[in-house]
Amino acid sequence: MKALILAGGLGTRLRPLTFSIPKPLLPVGEKPILQIIIEQMKSAGIDDIVLATGYQAGLIRAFCGDGSKLGVNLSYVHEEHPLGTAGPLSLSRRHFENERVFLVMNGDIITRLDFAQFLHAGANGNCDLTVGFTKHVYRSPFGVLSIADGTVQGIVEKPCHEYAISAGIYCLRPSALEFVPDDVFFTMPQLMERLLAANRKIGAYYIQDCWIGIESVEHFEEAIKELGKIPAEAGFVAQQMEPSSLFGLTGEH
């Protein structure tokens, strides 16, 4: 099985941490986010992985190499300018055109999702694209008034609303690649809009397992707590690729 990991973002919401280190290489506990993702993919039988790089691409290449230390085969496509969350697919078509389905995932996510099970569901769902989603609860910090004819009819104190949100993890068929334009900024929501406009089917897969999008220092703390629940890969030990070694690298590759 194959996968594309999106690892080219600027990580602006985590500055100043990402001024010198790309977000996917920021360590969560003893390992960088990207290493954790790759090891989980390997354990799910995904051993052929493409990394879409952009910002600080040299550091990512220096850290990951050809993937042999992680027990996988890694190849790279490079964004000369930002291409969004779906645009990098235009650079990597040849890697996936003969696959039944393949995985696409943002490179800043900690999750306990079973990737093999997710791809199996996507393959059997007869969809061009299957979106992994989770649920986000928004709680208003205020009491919300119901007003009619200038009078208060009722009040709900700090109401909650639950939303289904994209988890940044997708199962695609090669047929979806036909809807991705070449070498322009293009997002997954735009791809979904094009598929829907063409009456193509998009599946939804509820991720009930742990899912954390790393967007703040608090998310790192939450992810570290979850790491103890994610089994480590016996074939690769953290000492082989210490996160501290990142600070000895430069972006001049």
What does this entry look like structurally?
- The chain has 253 residues and is of the alpha/beta class.
- It is 21% helix and 30% strand.
- It is built from six helices and 13 strands.
- The strands form four sheets. It has a seven-stranded mixed beta sheet with strand order 5-4-1-6-11-8-12.
- α2 links the parallel β4 and β5.
- The longest helix has 11 residues.
- The chain is globular.
- The relative contact order is 0.20.
Main beta sheet strand tally, sense and closure: 7 strands, mixed
The low-confidence parts are 230-253
Gyration radius, in Å: 20 Å
N-C termini distance = 30 Å
* H/E element sequence: EEEHEHEHEEHEEEEHEEH
Helix content: 10-25%
> Overall 3D geometry?
globular
Sheet/helix structural class: alpha/beta
Strand order of the largest sheet: 5-4-1-6-11-8-12
Number of separate helices: 6
What share of the residues does DSSP label as strand, in percent? 25-35%
**DSSP, total strands:** 13
- Average pLDDT number: 81
